Amino acid sequence: MKLTEPELTDLKKAKDLLENPGLAAKITNYIGMPLEKGFELLPKNWNSKIVELTHKAITKSTDAALFTMKNKPGEKSSNIWHKATVAISGGAGGFFGFAGLAVELPVSTTIMMRSIADIARSENQNLDNAETKLACVEVLALGGKSESDDGTESGYYITRALLAQQLTMAAEHIAKNGLTKEGAPALVKFFTTVASRFGIQVTEKAAAQAVPVIGAATGAALNLLFIDHFQDMARGHFIVKRLEKKYSPEFIKKEYASL
Predict the structure, then answer these.
(1) Phi then psi for 215, rounded to 5 degrees?
(2) Do 52 and 199 contact (CB within 8 A), yes or no?
(3) What's the pLDDT tens digit per position in 178-206?
(4) CA neighbours closer than 13 Å in the CB half-sphere of residue 87
């Protein structure tokens, strides 16, 4: 069993996207100052609210975007259109400063979720499949660090391992019952875990927006960085998923590690 040259090139591209510097580094480079200054300006109760805020954003975006996408595997993704619309929402949120984040986040997350599903579709993923839908949600957990991350394995595969069992159980629930949240602890647990990882990157974005010099124009630019990051995560993730479908997850993981 051997990857073709185009497939090997695709896998290298996926690894470059998935293992590159995270969102915090990109934001720091853009605003020209360490994010620590912004973290100091966040409300004291921010940590207690972040999971709730991100959980609501993910749930709303899943309802409004992911489960209404038409299933057209192989259709080219519209990355530029999604970037333009998320920039507009970021400009509005930036105009109102940090206080606008709670209103703006569900909107930008919905647009990003549609973009992620669009990319999944372009990589020949079946959006009618419950596991594919949840793999789109899984993208929001990629590219962020947690205390359990170390250097023994790629951050990408650490996150996938963390979510694997929850994703499978949540997919089984959706396949049998649809997207019903009542009496669906597996689905709630999956969304909560994703929200905790996504919340890391939302906090980084919020820290930048908390700096007084950040205005509407910079809010739009931050949202462009935000969606660009998750479009990269989605492209890498669904390249890997496409190759796993043709070969096997174990084989692709080994090939990924050898690059």
Answers:
(1) -120, -160
(2) no
(3) 766 555 888 889 999 999 999 989 888 88
(4) 12
- Compute CA distances 88 → 55, 83, 91, 221, 222, whole Å: 23, 9, 5, 9, 11
The DSSP string of 87-126 is HHHHHHHHHTGGGGHHHHHHHHHHHHHHHHHHHHHHTT--
pTM, full prediction: 0.86
Question: Is the per-residue pLDDT at 212 higher than 70?
Answer: no
- Lookup: tokens for 120: 């999944």
- How do residues 11-46 score in pLDDT, each as one tens digit? 999 999 999 878 888 888 877 777 887 888 887 877
Residues 6+ apart with CB under 8 A from 120: 127, 132, 135, 136, 234, 238, 241
Cα–Cα distance list, 118 to 73, 78, 111, 187, 210 (Å)? 9, 7, 10, 22, 31
Instruction: Find, among 116, 140, 111, the residue nearest to 127 by Cα.
Output: 116
Is residue 114 within 8 Å of residue 107, measured between CB atoms?
no
Q: Is 43 exposed, middle or buried (0-12, 13-18, 19+ CB in 10 A)?
A: exposed
Contact 229, 23 (CB under 8 A): yes
pLDDT at 94 > cutoff 70: no
Nearest partner of 194 among 252, 250, 136, 237, judged by Cα: 136
Q: Which two tokens stand for residue 141?
A: 């957990």
d(CA 74, CA 7): 16
* pLDDT digits 0-9 by tens, 232-245: 999 999 999 999 99
